[in-house]
Structure formats: C-alpha cells, structure tokens
Amino acid sequence: MFPPGAGPAADPAGDRHERTIRSFQPRRSRVTHAQREALLRWWPHRGLEIDGGSRIDPAELFGGLPVVLEIGFGMGEATAEMAAADPGTGILAVDVHTPGQGNLLRLAEEAALTNVRVANGDAMILLREMLPPAALAGVRVFFPDPWPKKRHHKRRLIQPEFVELAASRMAPGAVLHCATDWEPYARWMREVLDASPSFVNAAPGGPDGFAPRPQDRPRTRFERQGIAKGHVVRDLRYRRR
Ligand SMILES: C[S@@+](CC[C@H](N)C(=O)[O-])C[C@H]1O[C@@H](n2cnc3c(N)ncnc32)[C@H](O)[C@@H]1O
C-alpha cells in the first residue's frame, strides 16, 4: 500500500507476540487519497509502530508535557478536537485502523497540532511491553467495540487484566475515562472498575451513578451512530489511587 518504510506496518508486532484474544477486528477499509497523502507526509514524524520491542518514554516524546493515552481513536475527530483545546497535554493516540490514522494525521496537520502522536497496533502490547510504569497522566477509551455476543465478551477491552495493566502505567491521581453507548457494556465496565483495587470512581454523580457527560468530550462518530439508534451514552471516570 505504501512504498517500503513509508507508512504504518500491517502487523507491527508480527510474530513477536502469539495471537491471543484481540479486542479489535482487522478491517480492510479503503484509505482515501487525502489520508494516504497525510500518512506519507506525517507518518515518519508523528507515527509510532507498536512493535513490542522498542521502549517509549512519553514525556520525552512530547517535550515534557503530561501525556494522555487514547485507545481506539477511530477516525480521530474527538482526538484532534481535544488536542486543540488542550495544547498543554500530549495525546498518544493508538488504533490499528489505517484510514483513521491517516485521517487523524490530516486533522492534526490542518489544525497545526504539535501535541498528537499516532501509534499503530494493539494497545495491550503498547501498555505491556513499551510504556514505563506511572508514565501516563490519563487514559481515554471512547466507544470501544462492545462485542455484544456472549461468546465474544472475552474480546472486550475493559477486563480486569487490562484495567490493572493500565493502572500500572498511570500516575497516581490520573483518570481513566471511558464512554460507551452499549448499556450492558457500561454496566460491565462499572463492575470491572468498581472491583479494581487500583481505581476509585471519581465522578459517580451522574445518571445511575455514572459520570455526568464531560463538556470536554466531543461527540464522536460512534456516539452519533449510537444516539441515532436510541442508545443512552454513559461516561465513566475512575481515578488511579
Ligand atoms: C467502535 S470504534 C470507536 C472509535 C472512536 N473512539 C469513536 O468513538 O468514534 C473502536 C476502535 O477501537 C480500536 N481498537 C479496539 N481494540 C484496540 C486495541 N487493542 N488497540 C488499538 N485499537 C483498538 C478499533 O480499531 C476501532 O477503531
């Protein structure tokens, strides 16, 4: 798809990691001309491969700014908007979806954002193998794939193992912010996070004990689709102890 070495790799961790249960589905959607151009221009400067081998120092990556990890940014509209509104925070945005990576780099270029880096690959590998302890000022997971069928629940990203891994990479006081329009997943997230010894519910004051919708979270594509289907959107904000 790209000249050698120019764009994001198809499977950056490759054989280094056995294929365990993954929370994403490989998608082969088309990369538009504008996305491809943005990838060719910006991937060498703003792209990071999640190869499971190299180490990342988030503070160094953003010249000492506090760093928030966003997992599964999709097309990146919310990422770019939040980065523009908060230039004092570095956003390490991770997804496996090439068109979305191109789109986010395009949006970052248009808005002249210098506080966004795009990581390609599985966030689990990034957290487990590449990030140092207590390095993150926050983690965002907006509208993760809900995996509604029971036999697929094991593929949900929010699981005790993920939550403790994320906690270990977050500084004390850092907030894990999740949002979903899938009510059973919202309840599942609450159960997992309430049971975690590493987190405390930082905003239980919204509807049904969830967080009030934060003003700083823009509507994402998946959120708009969920609302159009009549789904209720839930936010969860849990603070690292
Ligand atoms: C349902 S989409 C939501 C996208 C976006 N946050 C939004 O609200 O429009 C979930 C995204 O998470 C990504 N994803 C799921 N598991 C992931 C993982 N382990 N590492 C990186 N990205 C992941 C998928 O590729 C997909 O783009």
TrEMBL record:
<feature type="compositionally biased region" description="Basic and acidic residues">
    <location>
        <begin position="214"/>
        <end position="226"/>
    </location>
</feature>
<feature type="binding site">
    <location>
        <position position="122"/>
    </location>
    <ligand>
        <name>S-adenosyl-L-methionine</name>
    </ligand>
</feature>
<dbReference type="InterPro" id="IPR055361">
    <property type="entry name" value="tRNA_methyltr_TrmB_bact"/>
</dbReference>
<dbReference type="InterPro" id="IPR003358">
    <property type="entry name" value="tRNA_(Gua-N-7)_MeTrfase_Trmb"/>
</dbReference>
<feature type="binding site">
    <location>
        <position position="149"/>
    </location>
    <ligand>
        <name>substrate</name>
    </ligand>
</feature>
<keyword id="KW-0819">tRNA processing</keyword>
<dbReference type="GO" id="GO:0008176">
    <property type="term" value="F:tRNA (guanine(46)-N7)-methyltransferase activity"/>
</dbReference>
<feature type="region of interest" description="Disordered">
    <location>
        <begin position="203"/>
        <end position="226"/>
    </location>
</feature>
<feature type="region of interest" description="Disordered">
    <location>
        <begin position="1"/>
        <end position="30"/>
    </location>
</feature>
<comment type="similarity">
    <text>Belongs to the class I-like SAM-binding methyltransferase superfamily. TrmB family.</text>
</comment>
<comment type="pathway">
    <text>tRNA modification; N(7)-methylguanine-tRNA biosynthesis.</text>
</comment>
<dbReference type="GO" id="GO:0043527">
    <property type="term" value="C:tRNA methyltransferase complex"/>
</dbReference>
<keyword id="KW-0808">Transferase</keyword>
<comment type="function">
    <text>Catalyzes the formation of N(7)-methylguanine at position 46 (m7G46) in tRNA.</text>
</comment>
<feature type="binding site">
    <location>
        <position position="145"/>
    </location>
    <ligand>
        <name>S-adenosyl-L-methionine</name>
    </ligand>
</feature>
<protein>
    <recommendedName>
        <fullName>tRNA (guanine-N(7)-)-methyltransferase</fullName>
        <ecNumber>2.1.1.33</ecNumber>
    </recommendedName>
</protein>
<keyword id="KW-0949">S-adenosyl-L-methionine</keyword>
<feature type="binding site">
    <location>
        <position position="70"/>
    </location>
    <ligand>
        <name>S-adenosyl-L-methionine</name>
    </ligand>
</feature>
<feature type="binding site">
    <location>
        <position position="181"/>
    </location>
    <ligand>
        <name>substrate</name>
    </ligand>
</feature>
<keyword id="KW-0489">Methyltransferase</keyword>
<feature type="binding site">
    <location>
        <position position="95"/>
    </location>
    <ligand>
        <name>S-adenosyl-L-methionine</name>
    </ligand>
</feature>
<feature type="binding site">
    <location>
        <begin position="220"/>
        <end position="223"/>
    </location>
    <ligand>
        <name>substrate</name>
    </ligand>
</feature>
<dbReference type="Pfam" id="PF02390">
    <property type="entry name" value="Methyltransf_4"/>
</dbReference>
<dbReference type="InterPro" id="IPR029063">
    <property type="entry name" value="SAM-dependent_MTases_sf"/>
</dbReference>
